[in-house]
Amino acid sequence: MINQADKNEDLVIRLEDVHKIYQMGDQQVNALAGVSTTFSAGGFCAIMGPSGSGKSTMLNLLGCLDRATRGRYILEGTDVSTLDDDALSELRLRHLGFIFQSFNLIPQLTVQRNIELPLYYLGWDSESSAERAVELADKVGLAERLNHRPTELSGGQMQRVAIARALANDPRILLADEPTGNLDTATGEQILQLLAELNEQGKTIIMVTHEPDIAMLARTRLHMRDGLIETIEED
Ligand SMILES: Nc1ncnc2c1ncn2[C@@H]1O[C@H](COP(=O)(O)OP(=O)(O)OP(=O)(O)O)[C@@H](O)[C@H]1O
Ligand SMILES: [Mg+2]
Q1: Domains of the chain: which residue ranges?
Q2: Which of 4, 103, 171, 225 is the right S-S partner for 158, CB 3.0 to 4.6 Å?
Q3: Residues with CB under 5 A from ligand 2 (ion)
Q4: Phi-psi region of 66 (alpha: psi -120 to 50; beta: other; left: phi over 0)
Q5: What is the pTM of this model?
């Protein structure tokens, strides 16, 4: 059941004292050590910080790929902390889009089929999915590559396919973990430009990045250290 815990329209995400503890043998790793923050609708936020500071852990929690050990996570009015696994998957499928450093495309499938994949899980018919894939490929500048396979594309093109796939379900929120991490500087900038355009069109974007130049394109920069938010900079 969905718990309407927060109806503030402008606030997409609220974390309240969120902890994530990994048990490694007899050692505990406090990957998140009590994070409380909010992300507003329509924002473009870069999560920064040293390796091991908890950036990916935080993004995975935000994306409902993982659960907090303790604390509350309110996503667009829903208290996600109380949802079972099926409800979490459903929420991911309908409301979130993901972009990963290593693209995570399916090598056996064409560009078109990769983009259509979430629509398949959403039960779309093949005609509507194909139309949507064509429209999205066009949006990311890959209309000419629909029948190619990922191995026939450049890194930047692969990331564009991944972005088109992330957009297939028309999510309000896009989450990206080092989306330019495997790209050269110029290509990385183009991908960032595409994310900035999507943000201007209304998508809320939360992106992990090591690179200060990349983070400068975001409008909010959140700095993490030792599983905590150290500072938040707003433009
Ligand atoms: N599945 C896991 N099991 C155990 N420990 C983990 C796991 N995932 C992450 N950690 C630990 O949690 C801490 C935070 O990891 P996280 O991956 O969030 O860091 P990060 O800021 O994304 O780092 P990087 O910049 O290297 O990607 C680290 O100490 C890491 O070793
Ligand atoms: Mg990481």
Answers
A1: 43-54+85-234
A2: 103
A3: 55-56
A4: beta
A5: 0.93
pLDDT class of 12 with cuts at 50, 70, 90: confident
Tokens of 98: 């993901």
Q: pLDDT tens digits, residue range 110-154?
A: 999 999 999 999 999 999 999 999 999 999 999 999 999 999 999
Bridge-based pairing state of the strands 220-225 and 228-234 = antiparallel
Q: How many CB atoms lie within 10 A of CB 28?
A: 11
Q: 135 Cβ partners below 8 Å, 6+ apart?
A: none
Could you report the per-residue pLDDT of 25-58, keeping only the tens digit for each? 999 999 999 999 999 999 999 999 999 999 999 9
CATH class of 43-54+85-234: alpha beta
What token pair was written down for 75?
């996503």
Amino acid type, 138:
D
Ligand 1 neighbourhood includes 29 CB (under 6 angstroms): yes
Cβ atoms of 62 and 13 within 8 Å: the answer is yes
CA neighbor of 75 nearest in space, from 56, 91, 87: 91
The CA distance from 177 to 156, in Å, is 15
Q: Tell the residue nearest (CA) to atom 10 of ligand 1.
A: 31
**CA–CA dist 72, 70 (Å, integer):** 7
| Nearest residue (CA) to ligand 1, atom 11 | 31
**Ligand 1 mutation target, pool 24, 56, 214, most atoms within 8 A of CB:** 56
Q: Is 112 in the pocket of ligand 1 (CB under 6 A)?
A: no
